[in-house]
Amino acid sequence: MDAYQSDMVWLSRISEAKIERVLAGEYTGEDPSLHALATYAQDAKATFSAAPDEATRAIHLMAMAETAAGLDSPPASEIAPAPSRPFSRAKVVLSSLIASLIGKIALVGVAVAATTGGLAATGSLPDPAQDALARAAEKVGFDLPASDNDAGVPEDLPDGAQGSSAASVLDVIRSWDDDKGCEFGHAVATAAGGHPGACKDEQGDDEGSKNTGKPEARGGRPEGAGKPEGTPHEKPAGAGEGQGGKPEGTPDDKPEGAGKPEAAPGGGSDRSGETDSGSSDHGDGHDSGGVVAPPSDVPAGGSGVGLPNSLPGAKP
Amino acid sequence: MTLGQAFGSVITAARAGAEWAWAELYDDLAPLVLGYLRGRGAAEPEDLTGEVFLHMVRDVGSFEGNERDFRSWTLSIAHHRLLDDIRYRKRRPAEPAVEEVERQTVPGGDVEAEALSSLGSAHVVRIIQTLSPDQRDVLLLRMLADLTIEEIAGILDKRPGAVKALQRRGLANLRKKISHKGVPL
Question: What's the whole-model pTM score?
Answer without folding.
Answer: 0.49
